[in-house]
Amino acid sequence: MKTDKGTDEPLLPDDLRELWRHESTRSTWLRPGDWYHPAVDALASAVLEQRDPTAAAHGLGHARGYDGVGITEALDDLACLYRSTGRAEPPHTVVVTFCAGWADAQAAGSVPATCLDAESGLPTSDYLSVRLAEAYLVAARTGRPVQDDHGLILVDVATGELHPFLRMARAAAVGAALLETYGHGHPMATLGGGAFAVLVRHDGTGADLRRLREQVERHCDALGLGADVLRTPARIWQRALPDTHDEAVQALTRAGRG
After folding, report:
1. How many CB atoms lie within 10 A of CB 167?
2. Under a CB-based contact definition with an 8 Å cutoff, are residues 135 and 145 in contact?
3. Angle at the Cα of 97 (from 93 to 101), degrees rounded to 5?
4. If pLDDT is split at 50, 70 and 90, which confidence band does 206 have?
5. DSSP letters of 6-54?
6. What pLDDT was estimated at residue 114?
7. What residue spans define the domains of the chain?
8. CATH annotation of 118-256
9. How many CB atoms lie within 10 A of CB 180?
10. Per-residue pLDDT averaged across 3-15, rounded?
11. How far apart are CA 175 and CA 146, in angstroms?
12. DSSP letter string over 112-180?
């Protein structure tokens, strides 16, 4: 591997890091002053020494997500590393583990208050739309159909017009059921009109629909909510993601309108 000076001397990790920094800040990175993170060195060393880079890629992805770097900017920066070594694109496994680290950091963080629904305590559909966009972007980068890795869980408990207090109680019960079933690792949202959605991964971490139904019933019973307040039984189903992000957003909009 040649250095940027065109010699045949082998690159050192520090050399690769600076080539990577130059390539990224020239073409991709929005704020050059915050590009460096110690996880950069770990990944550069693994790639340069031809060791398995997946753990280091996960670490850098997590660092980028924790720092609030968008998934597009983070993936473009990762590609700059591999271009600096003369390769066209990062390997598929590196992209997947990098994105997993980024998503883990995002899931552990808090959702901005402006994206939260006051009744259910869940994010709004706008927030879920952003997370869906990230899933489609990752799918495009890896060359895998988005349906291979993700799906939507939809919940509909609508029964008609309700007093605001009862509507709020119903939303709070379903929100608590979703959080207890899936935790904060899966993006979820209220869609309005008694409808809710969760973006799940097909990796064994998505709880089954029976458990979700049991949690919805338990939380509604605890608040004394009966058939006059929510659809019984609640409609809970899984659907495949459509081919495009726009179609996915339209599907959420239709679900919210009943």
Report:
1. 17
2. no
3. 170
4. low
5. S-SSPPPHHHHHHHHHHHHHHHT-S-GGG---HHHHHHHHHHHTT---H
6. 57
7. 13-108, 118-256
8. 3.30.70
9. 15
10. 64
11. 26
12. PGGGB-TTTSSBPHHHHHHHHHHHHHHHHHHT--GGGTEEEEEEE---S---HHHHHHHHHHHHHHHHH
Integer Cα distance of 112 and 124 in angstroms: 11
Distance CA 177, CA 216 (A): 5
- Rounded-to-integer distance, Cα 67 and Cα 175, Å: 27
Backbone angles phi, psi at 211, to 5 degrees: -65, -40
∠ CA 68-72-76 to the nearest 5 degrees?
110
pLDDT at 2: 41
Task: Read off the tokens for 61.
Answer: 């992805």
Compute CA distances 43 → 47, 55, 104, 192, whole Å: 6, 8, 18, 43
- Residues with Cβ within 8 Å of residue 15, at least 6 apart in sequence: 3, 4
CA gap 4, 132 in Å, rounded: 39
Sign of the CA dihedral running 204, 183, 192, 214:
positive
Closest CA to 100 of 65, 50, 147, 151: 65
- For 232, the token pair is 């019984």
Return d(Cα 154, Cα 197) in angstroms, integer.
5
Average pLDDT over residues 56-72: 86
Query: What is the C-alpha to C-alpha distance for residues 41 and 216, in angstroms, rounded to an integer?
Result: 46
